[in-house]
Amino acid sequence: MDACLGLDQVKIYPPGEDVLFHPKVYAFELEAEVEVYVGSSNLTGAGLSKNHECGIFIRAESTHSKLQQFLNYIDERFDEASVLDADFITAYKANKKRVKDAEDELKKFTRIAPARRAKNSFTTTHAQDLRWKEFVTKVKNDTVGAFDMRLDMLGRIHKWFASGRSFQEFTLGERKRVTGIIFPSKPKNIDWGLFGQMTANGGFYDVLDDHTNIISMALDKIPLYEPVKWSHYDDFWTCFSLIPQASDGWIGLATRLLAMKRPDEFVCLTRKNKQGVCGYLGAPYSTMTLKNYWERIIEKVRITPWYLKKEPRDPLERKIWHCRTALLDAIYYDQT
Question: What pTM does this model have?
Fold first, then answer.
């Protein structure tokens, strides 16, 4: 558009009109002949050279009445179109930037993979197929009988993040509860080991003591309210990997942190639930890492019926909805 600015032969139909201007008609006057193309191809590099398109070329003498109708049509549309000016180009660029993330999402197609149920799996619940009401019932029937405690725990942690403090400004006790690095795990009648207790890895105590600032910086990359995008997750992982000992195999601690800040978007993968969560989302659990967690888990979750449910009006269901992805642990945690 910048190159076309000031050219009298270039005009536009601004987006947002009541009727979308959508025809793909190209007419060429070739001395005594006219050639017309009518088809699906947009006037883009992909539309004219890469995509699979369908169209037809018609060529005849320039006096042919039917082909003249195409020329007249183009002339009439040109007369009623708008002049291309710098203000429109500025607005177009701003709007294109505004919807870039949505465009990127539309370009990516997430496939539903067949469920990979393990032979010794204690459940047959397919996360891909669950409708909202079924999901709510399954979550309430928590495999460890801690449904109310789960909601209480996540509600308290949300208040800490919503207070405006960063993770490094939390008290030591709050930081231990968020990370699941607390022993014993049940002070004040809440089992803070729900959703993934990290005390089994003794090195995580040192990580919390020595690298609170890095964990805090990583968590700051995840917004508290707006939709979480791949770029947010990528920024989180980039910061998290600054911990000297960290590897992409630290999926338990990293996803625990993510699920505590945004339980609507993330689930903590642990030894006790990984086989069920991954298996029933069609993802191989044995090769799960932080590098493929978004693609294999989060993208799969986001096309499930229970995740796509609009926010319910019922107060209890609304609480579940705001924690829905993390609550997969209530369905797939295997006590055996």
Answer: 0.79
User: What's phi and psi for 44, nearest 5 deg?
Assistant: -135, 165
User: Does the bond joining 184 to the residue before it have cis omega, within 30 degrees of 0?
Assistant: yes
* β-bridge partners, 139: none
233 in the same domain as 309 = yes
d(CA 117, CA 166): 40
Are 201 and 137 in the same domain? yes
Q: How far apart are CA 314 and CA 71, in angstroms?
A: 59
Overall number of domains in the chain: 2
The SS3 assignment for 247 reads coil
| Element of type H or E holding 83 | strand 82-83
Same domain, 62 and 201: no
Q: Which residues contact 282 (CB under 8 A, 6 or more apart)?
A: 112, 113, 114, 115, 116, 128, 300
Residue 71 and residue 58: Cα distance in Å, rounded? 13
From first to last of the 336 residues of the chain, give the pLDDT tens digit.
899 999 999 999 888 766 777 888 999 988 899 999 999 998 888 888 899 999 999 999 988 988 888 889 989 989 999 999 998 998 888 888 877 776 777 677 777 778 777 767 778 888 888 999 999 999 999 999 999 999 999 999 999 999 999 999 999 999 999 999 987 667 668 899 999 988 877 788 899 999 999 999 999 999 999 999 999 999 999 999 999 988 888 999 999 999 999 999 999 999 999 999 999 999 998 899 999 999 999 999 999 999 999 999 999 999 999 999 999 999 999 987
Residue listed under structure tokens 């070739």? 30
Residue entry with tokens 């924690």: 323
Kindly state whether residues 198 and 275 are assigned to the same domain.
Answer: yes
Alpha-carbon distances of 259 from 144, 195, 230, 262, rounded to whole Å: 19, 8, 15, 5
